[in-house]
UniProtKB/TrEMBL annotation:
Family annotation (InterPro entries): Endo/exonu/phosph_ase_sf
UniProt entry tagged with the keyword Cell inner membrane: no
Record-given protein name: Putative Endonuclease/exonuclease/phosphatase, putative transposon
Protein's UniProt keywords contain Transferase: no
SUPFAM superfamilies the record matches: DNase I-like
Length: 187
């Protein structure tokens, strides 16, 4: 999701929807994959904020312990969210808070609300409001003209798969454009 802040700074938020299995090896593997993904995306620095939401199949404290053990730092405001999000026909399975939002960088999940009047599954939908304390500008994106790349066919694959694209980084847009032109001509 991309947005425009009050000071006309663009920012981008990566929204990740998860399903974490209930227990055992499948749960640990899913959390490990999620944490690896979150570390990779944070290191790339492409997003101002990362928000993870969905069916955690565990209460907020349990999920926080797992994320913390895997060195994923989160804003801890979600720990206070305890409303029941699970609806089941069997009374023993009702009432657990297993669906919630977790933010990683500088956003605070200000409000989470459970929509109890919506019956779509055995979980109630959860709506959240985010408040961002400090907005980091979204990085510039490389944009490829797909029509031109289709015209040059096989060469396009070589151009896009070249690892040197990763080295074309500069705060000066004209300098970056010059580096990219030189790289394309060289390839």
């Amino acid at each position: 999701v991309e947005g425009l802040a009050e000071d006309n700074t663009t920012f981008s938020i990566l929204m990740v929807c998860v399903y974490i299995p209930c227990q055992g090896v499948a749960r640990r593997n899913a959390l490990d994959r999620l944490c690896n993904f979150l570390h990779r995306e944070r290191d790339r620095g492409r997003f101002s904020e990362i928000v993870v939401m969905g069916d955690w199949n565990g209460v907020p404290g349990q999920s926080h312990r797992h994320l913390h053990a895997r060195q994923v730092a989160t804003n801890e405001e979600f720990l206070g969210f305890t409303r029941a999000t699970r609806f089941a026909r069997a009374p023993a399975r009702r009432g657990r808070c297993i669906d919630y939002f977790v933010s990683l960088n500088n956003a605070i999940v200000e409000k989470q609300r459970v929509l109890r009047d919506v019956d779509l599954s055995d979980h109630y939908p959860v709506v959240a409001s985010l408040a961002v304390k400090h907005i980091t500008a979204a990085p510039d994106k490389l944009i490829y003209d797909r029509l031109k790349l289709q015209l040059i066919g096989k060469t396009a694959v070589e151009i896009l798969s070249d690892r040197r694209w990763l080295t074309c980084r500069s705060d000066d847009v004209s300098e970056r454009a010059k580096q990219l032109r030189l790289l394309v001509e060289e390839i």
